[in-house]
């Protein structure tokens, strides 16, 4: 056998090329499993934590690359973490603040990874991300609905104050996690992609049921806002009048389905009573000068006097409650540097997201899922702490990955036009 044939392997195909194909396939499988495991977080560390590290290492060995268009995102996240490290210095000997800061470092690293990972092979990786995420939502919804029904909606190991939460530790996190899955499945129905309707429809119904049983005001509101945003983006960017009619018909069908399910649920007296109790704008723990919102207002003058913040997890020592606002917490736990960096990240991502959803490019439809999901996280950040939510960094990083791919696509367009001329 010649040296050339030996180098290529039997059959003449280059062995390096064959290895690259298999390696890419392995990476895709591990990445999909990582996304699928994202809803199983009632144990710490979770399967997701291990799998995301494996995925990151597999990716970094062969494909590590940083597009210039992602650098602003990496910068603001890095400054947010650096602000937290400065704020930690006086409390370095306390285990809880140290653990909290390490968790911040880890979770922001995953956000950076998703941005860099989806910047290349963008279509394929976004499909894997969204399909794996949606499958994890179906799994979470099945567990949540089953455990709630078996427990008759009472308190138990898998429920909290009559609210479904499994396989999470908090009903609010369960509800918010499911929003992206709702968007992904609903978009297919709205766009008339009914080939797998027999699977999509029951999956969507199951996820919506679990979202309802979480009785999370913020999650339900976020889901409605995200759906309205997505439908508006789809309608605005539709190619033809016929497509606009399809979108509107699909949206109406979705609303009717969701409305029928809601009416059926509210026909049960105990469920209806609990739903309207939870739907109240404010509860006892929200009101008064020592309530959630009162504490936030009282904290602002204190934070204005402390450039280094209060320190990680120190807010609760002063007010006996967590901030319940990621914007307040960014300044309290990460100082002025971290707080303003967090706000800069929100503003930059919002600008890019609207542009991605309203202008044409190959990843516009995926952007019309991941950006509304990210945007409602930003809104929820005003009334709950989202900065350690794993799923927040999934869609956040994907927005920036799409931006890198879009910029590259725009840069290559003159060459494509010249070839087609």
Automatic annotation (TrEMBL):
Residues 203-343 form the O-antigen ligase-related domain. The keyword Transcription does not apply. It is a multi-pass membrane protein. Its main location: membrane. It is found in: Membrane. It comes from the Bacteria. The chain crosses the membrane at residues 26-43, 49-66, 73-92, 98-117, 129-153, 173-191, 196-213, 219-236, 248-268, 335-354, 366-384. InterPro entries: O-antigen_ligase-rel_domated, WaaL-like. Keywords: Membrane, Transmembrane, Transmembrane helix. Pfam families: Wzy_C. One of its GO terms (cellular component) is membrane. The keyword Translocase does not apply. This is O-antigen ligase-related domain-containing protein. It comes from Rhodoblastus acidophilus (Rhodopseudomonas acidophila).
């Amino acid at each position: 056998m010649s040296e050339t044939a030996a180098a290529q392997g039997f059959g003449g195909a280059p062995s390096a090329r064959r290895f690259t194909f298999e390696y890419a396939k392995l990476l895709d499988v591990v990445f999909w499993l990582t996304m699928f495991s994202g809803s199983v977080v009632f144990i710490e560390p979770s399967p997701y934590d291990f799998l995301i590290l494996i995925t990151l290492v597999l990716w970094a060995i062969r494909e590590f690359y940083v597009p210039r268009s992602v650098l602003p995102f990496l910068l603001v996240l890095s400054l947010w973490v650096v602000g937290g490290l400065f704020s930690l210095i006086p409390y370095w000997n306390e285990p809880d603040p140290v653990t909290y800061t390490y968790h911040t470092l880890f979770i922001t690293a995953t956000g950076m990874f998703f941005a860099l990972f989806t910047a290349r092979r963008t279509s394929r990786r976004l499909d894997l991300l969204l399909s794996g995420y949606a499958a994890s939502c179906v799994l979470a919804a099945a567990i949540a609905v089953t455990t709630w029904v078996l427990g008759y909606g009472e308190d138990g190991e898998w429920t909290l104050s009559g609210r479904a939460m499994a396989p999470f530790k908090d009903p609010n996190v369960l509800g918010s996690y499911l929003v992206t899955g709702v968007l992904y499945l609903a978009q297919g129905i709205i766009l008339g992609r009914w080939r797998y309707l027999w699977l999509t429809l029951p999956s969507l119904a199951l996820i919506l049921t679990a979202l309802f049983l979480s009785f999370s005001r913020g999650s339900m509101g976020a889901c409605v806002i995200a759906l309205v945003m997505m439908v508006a983006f789809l309608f605005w960017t539709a190619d033809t009048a016929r497509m606009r009619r399809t979108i509107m018909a699909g949206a109406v069908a979705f609303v009717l389905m969701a409305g029928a399910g809601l009416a059926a649920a509210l026909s049960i007296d105990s469920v209806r009573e609990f739903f309207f109790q939870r739907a109240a704008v404010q509860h006892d723990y929200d009101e008064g000068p020592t309530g959630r919102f009162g504490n936030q207002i009282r904290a602002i003058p204190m934070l204005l006097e402390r450039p280094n913040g209060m320190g990680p997890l120190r807010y609760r020592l002063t007010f006996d409650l967590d901030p319940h606002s990621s914007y307040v917490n960014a300044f309290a736990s990460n100082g002025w540097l971290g707080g303003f960096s967090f706000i800069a990240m929100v503003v930059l991502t919002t600008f890019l997201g609207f542009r991605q959803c309203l202008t044409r490019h190959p990843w516009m439809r995926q952007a019309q899922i991941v950006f509304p999901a990210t945007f409602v996280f930003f809104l929820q950040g005003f009334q709950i702490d989202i900065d350690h939510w794993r799923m927040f960094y999934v869609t956040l990083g994907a927005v920036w990955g799409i931006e890198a791919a879009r910029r590259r696509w725009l840069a290559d367009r003159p060459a494509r036009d010249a070839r087609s001329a």
